[in-house]
């Protein structure tokens, strides 16, 4: 699929506006400007935000290019914005292009990612599972996973999280999930499955359950997974998430 013009027919226009508003607030952009650009092909489609601007939760030592529905956003230092201005979105969305633009600043890739959203999910029965929201259970689960899985974002550091285990005495947690609230209206999901229980469907179950919790709280679930991660993409497809965008980031020395 082309990374340009990712307007998803399955995600309602109303929810596209909610998602775009969340990104706009995060980057201190005018919400209506993103809405108009998403709806009207004759308006500006790429929005530039200088990293020198004080934007909370955005690292000024990075360049991030996001393609979302029918618009794109580039957050980067001014010198990077200037260098990228005449490059079309299809080329700029490539890791090689971002690294080339940042070569003089010793750019290092933070990876390419796919962005999914959902507004309807299938029902999964968890009647045979014990569900808890205790930090001690989250830490027990993390100890049963490779360190790289939890180094960046421990499960119990999320705004909302829970784990599951079997209904037997002293059973170790099987899997966990949760979400951080992004810009008031979007829930950024995370899923963790104990190493010995992987490939058994627990990841898909937890993604669906976390998405359901998001919706109960009035949030739109967001699932971000590395480009080419077949497991993460299959989980998204099985739960009913819709491919809505791409993100590529580089950091500078």
Automatic annotation (TrEMBL):
Superkingdom of origin: Bacteria
Pfam families per the UniProt record, alphabetical: Acetyltransf_1
Gene3D superfamilies per UniProt: 3.40.630.30
All copies of domain N-acetyltransferase, residue ranges: 125-253
PROSITE patterns in the record: GNAT
InterPro entries linked: Acyl_CoA_acyltransferase, GNAT_dom
Record's protein name: N-acetyltransferase domain-containing protein
């Amino acid at each position: 699929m082309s990374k340009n013009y990712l307007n998803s027919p399955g995600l309602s226009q109303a929810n596209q506006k909610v998602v775009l508003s969340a990104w706009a607030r995060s980057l201190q952009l005018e919400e209506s400007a993103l809405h108009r650009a998403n709806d009207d092909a004759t308006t500006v489609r790429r929005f530039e935000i200088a990293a020198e601007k004080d934007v909370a939760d955005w690292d000024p030592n990075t360049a991030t290019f996001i393609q979302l529905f029918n618009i794109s956003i580039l957050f980067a230092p001014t010198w990077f914005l200037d260098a990228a201005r005449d490059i079309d979105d299809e080329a700029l969305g490539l890791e090689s292009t971002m690294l080339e633009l940042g070569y003089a600043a010793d750019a290092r890739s933070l990876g390419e990612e796919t962005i999914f959203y959902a507004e309807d999910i299938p029902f999964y029965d968890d009647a045979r599972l014990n569900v808890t929201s205790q930090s001690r259970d989250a830490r027990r689960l993390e100890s049963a996973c490779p360190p790289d899985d939890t180094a960046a974002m421990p499960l119990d550091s999320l705004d909302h999280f829970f784990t599951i285990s079997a209904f037997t005495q002293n059973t170790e947690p099987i899997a966990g999930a949760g979400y951080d609230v992004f810009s008031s209206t979007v829930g950024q999901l995370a899923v963790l499955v104990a190493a010995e229980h992987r490939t058994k469907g627990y990841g898909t179950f937890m993604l669906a359950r976390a998405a359901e919790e998001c919706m109960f709280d009035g949030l739109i679930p967001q699932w971000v997974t590395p480009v080419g991660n077949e497991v993460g993409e299959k989980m998204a497809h099985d739960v009913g998430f819709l491919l809505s965008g791409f993100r590529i980031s580089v950091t500078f020395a």
